[in-house]
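Running log. JK asked me to keep both predictions on one page so they can be read side by side. First protein, sequence followed by its tokens:
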Amino acid sequence: MNWLILVIAGLFEVGWAVGLKYSEGFTRLWPTVGTVFAMVVSFVLLGVAMRSLPVGTAYAVWVGIGAVGTVILGIILFGDSADPLRLVSIGFICVGIIGLKLAHV
């Protein structure tokens, strides 16, 4: 269950990272409200997941989910580069996340 909570926390991290772009430096009210909400939910869920997961593993997976998700949404929503080296690098992050999960049995 804590792994599911950690994944949800990572998805909220993606939400606040993308929200930062839409908030335009916290100058737009509703994107700012959504960003702050996503930040709070993400951190709370990360803390809950860390009750039973090792801190290094939980943090690395949370950051990895956030990084991968943010890059993907950056490509889709903002036209960020999708060159092959960038995609392969994101693939390595995914392999690392999976490795951390498999190492924690």
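And the second, directly underneath as requested:
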Amino acid sequence: MKTEVFVRAIGFLVVASATCLAEQQLGLPDVIIGDPNDPSADELAPPLSQEELDAAARQEPPPEDDVTGTSDGITTSGFFQGDIVVPSRDHLYQIIQGSPEAQASAVNDPKLKWPNAVVPYVISASFSAQERAVIAGAVLDLHRQTCIRFTPRGEHHTDYVHILSGEGCSSSVGRIGGVQVVSLGYGCLYHGIVLHEFMHALGFWHEQSRADRDKYVWVNWRNIEKDMKYNFEKKSNRLTTDLGLTYDYGSVMHYGAYAFAVDRNVATVIPRKPGVTIGQRRRLSEMDVEGINRLYQCNLSQPTPTPTPGPTSETCSDDHKSCWKWVERGLCTSNPYVSRTCRKSCQTCGSSGCGDQHQYCNEWAASGECTKNPDYMKVTCRLSCGLCSG
């Protein structure tokens, strides 16, 4: 028995030594390992209200954010490929080695997809009203053009996104399990950058990581910062699929022309097709939308089903554990979500106007969300869930 344990220990040391030697030979890049943002210490704000989404719908199209030039928060945050969270050095080593598991995306690993295209989320209280409006605009775009639905996290949601004002712009790729941070720090609160990070969370890598990218762009390796060349490695065909879509110069997931440049006046990524622009951060491209809808098998032409009857009684209560904080901050009058969610503390019990606060309430109720996601539905979809008295 002792001999067997000794042999196992020697074997472990040999493997560990070989791994260390391989890491030294590979020269692993100096990137942020793990997530420096601590969501457990963050104070939460109310979820985005329907009023905020409606206000975003009334806004003019977002301006052409000039992040395709020398400055882009996506490539300056210090994470792998600029903004992708890598959980450990072992994981980074596996990525550099080309491990299928380490480089998986929701495109080739169904476990990384969000079930039923529903993304539960919480949002930090550190965002200003203007910043929340930018985030609401990105959520609205996804709701309008795809079947993805961001829904406030309920107690039964173990996997969820925490939208945090953290260090730079960053996200994991796909659903990783438990709480995962989408960081929107300094330089990240642009419409297209928020969409970019949300698409990472939905399971997408960068566009120029495609296996066929060299047919469409030329990478100027001589002008890339020495320690940043790893950011331009391609994925092999066995690691990802293009979902049947051609290369998308206009994708919100594409690097800008000057990403990681030594000389900021000379491009590092040059399209082989003349007259196209890469690195836009304004909106989802047509193929971004198509890619999401194909990945999540969206059928947007499906008719809205008839709502399922729900409970018929109405009680006066607070439906969120942070109600007392929100009331102290005076949000009962300024945030309609709080006045509906914290009816007891805000003293809005018995007020008129019971109804649905979201256009998809009927559909959600029909799919059983009144029971599966009661924390959100009993506030936002009271009529469809049968909670309005009379």
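Observation for JK regarding the second prediction: Confidence is low (pLDDT under 50) at residues 5-26, 66-70, 302-314.
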